[in-house]
Amino acid sequence: MSIVILAEKPSQGRAYADAFRNAIKKDGYIEVEDSRFFNKRAFITWGLGHLVELVEPEQYKEEWKRWSMQTLPIFPEQFKFQVAKDKRKQFALVKKLLQSSSGVIVATDCDREVMGSYKNV
């Protein structure tokens, strides 16, 4: 099993890779072999902005398609998520790497965003 280092964006991933020996750029990730830090391989990968987004309001209720003062604020009972259409390839790669890893280092920007459960995405 391997370690996955999750960066916010490609440039951040490349900056992290500069700190390691034997970093090889691949399509959507960087493979690292550096025995100073890892027993086996590590993979640095990244998002491209938000890989997962909230669905549009009308996907909850048709009446929310057109906003009005009567329907605001919009608070669904349970929020639904979807993979952004233009980011499906990177999402699938990140998901595959995470599922095959023994550990994850979250090295994204420290925002107030909360990582939720995206197991249904």
From TrEMBL:
InterPro entries reported for this sequence: Topo_IA, Topo_IA_core_domain, TOPRIM_dom, TOPRIM_TopoIII
Domain of life the protein comes from: Bacteria
Chain ranges of the Toprim domain: 2-120
Protein name: Topoisomerase
